[in-house]
Amino acid sequence: xxxxxxxxxxxxxxxxxxxxxxxxxxxxxxxxxxxxxxxxxxxxxxxxxxxxxxxxxxxxxxxxxxxxxxxxxxxxxxxxxxxxxxxxxxxxxxxxxxxxxxxxxxxxxxxxxxxxxxxxxxxxxxxxxxxxxxxxxxxxxxxxxxxxxxxxxxxxxxxxxxxxxxxxxxxxxxxxxxxxxxxxxxxxxxxxxxxxxxxxxxxxxxxxxxxxxxxxxxxxxxxxxxxxxxxxxxxxxxxxxxxxxx
Amino acid sequence: xxxxxxxxxxxxxxxxxxxxxxxxxxxxxxxxxxxxxxxxxxxxxxxxxxxxxxxxxxxxxxxxxxxxxxxxxxxxxxxxxxxxxxxxxxxxxxxxxxxxxxxxxxxxxxxxxxxxxxxxxxxxxxxxxxxxxxxxxxxxxxxxxxxxxxxxxxxxxxxxxxxxxxxxxxxxxxxxxxxxxxxxxxxxxxxxxxxxxxxxxxxxxxxxxxxxxxxxxxxxxxxxxxxxxxxxxxxxxxxxxxxxxxxxx
Lengths: 246, 249
Ligand code: HEM
Ligand code: SF4
Ligand code: FES
Fold this sequence. Notes:
Number of domains of chain B: 2
Low-confidence stretches of chain B: none
Mean pLDDT of chain B: 95
Structural class of chain A: mainly alpha
Oligomer: heterodimer
Bound molecules: protoporphyrin IX containing FE, iron/sulfur cluster, FE2/S2 (inorganic) cluster
CATH architecture of the largest domain in chain B: Orthogonal Bundle
Number of strands of chain A: 1
Helix content of chain A: 55-70%
Shape of chain A: globular
Order of helices and strands of chain A: EHHHHHHHH
Strand content of chain B: 5-15%
Largest sheet of chain A: none
Structural class of chain B: alpha+beta
């Protein structure tokens, strides 16, 4: 028998001091789940709207104009859009703030010895903070590109909507015809699918889905919804880049 | 067979630890991991060295005392099997096996491979018990419970409190452990009056020392009792129920 000392590493003390935070982990997770599901529902509906691009410029622009005029005069002009924007902005704030809080708590609770070399099985779970950050960047870029038309995110030919007309179709095509932007949109959709697939499954746990059949349905639904969002959306930048959509 | 063990040595909680390598010869493939450590300790003691500290009791997978990290895996290479039921046949002859304590912020190292898992006890103290005076034994059918419900409660009651789920979790979460106890008790009618306060108390105690659950699913890979991820949904269901009904219901 031989004895040899190999390496010295610090650690071994309890790193998780007892905590009584203002917003408990349970409530942070509820905020994550509810806001995440709001996003998921929005992204799904938004994807179906995007598919109108295949009906041509006229239909797509008419749809964009309708979104602005929807429910007039009950709602003011752009009323529906502003309700959506406020809900989404509040959700985004809650989602990102709670994600940051939970991420920090998780690191503290685990302590200095991380788990390493985990199998592919938990890939989507482990990459949630990374895919989330990419999505945050994407959301900001996307709004500057196709909503406000702010350069350098937007294309040079961006034309803002007026009270009764929209150039959404032309703006979209011009934006995606820039190869680096088209590719970025396509990659962002893959990232979105990874985030949503694990996100819906996590939210199912946060909201207490215990039934056997319910769980089987939800695990399938999380994958199918992510895949539908992915295929519906990614087809657009790909077909623009291939010159099919013009 | 011949194996090299790279073992975490740490004199106490207060000092830093380090790895040391030990060659072990003459152990059989049928040895359990803990029997190999016994043999190694015999050799260490006979040469006047300090034996490796580790926890164990029943050595048949029912008490939850044992638990070391083997090559980064809590409990060892065979899934859903406690350290005392892991065998040397999992390792090729001549290989090096790295042994560390269970790693988690809430589990300070006591000595070498032994950690302090009393954080789990504090979760149970939060409400994972029945505090009713039950009196004399009730008639068998006084509290109707269906066969399936009784079986489900027993399945969740199978948790042996080893803490491997916490050690497996990249977030240091104890949701599987806590959820197993909450599901177990919530399925039985005799404990229903404490259902809400139990959920509140246990989840509060858990959040104080352990991390959030991100549904990595690593816990269910190591759990020797086969507790399913449903326990985690059950924990949140019980807590949500308590919130919606008001405290103590
Ligand atoms: C379209 C945008 C987004 C959608 C559809 C979405 C959806 C979701 C859903 C459904 C969850 C599960 C919630 C839970 O129960 O914990 C989740 C979790 C998460 N999201 Fe998002 N999210 C989006 C954007 C973001 C952004 C911008 C971030 C920024 C950092 C982010 C970071 C995270 C993280 C870190 C988690 C994991 C939380 C945990 O497991 O503890 N997400 N997301
Ligand atoms: S849930 Fe499983 S892994 Fe966790 S403490 Fe109980 S028996 Fe151990
Ligand atoms: S020693 Fe009892 S479970 Fe391993």
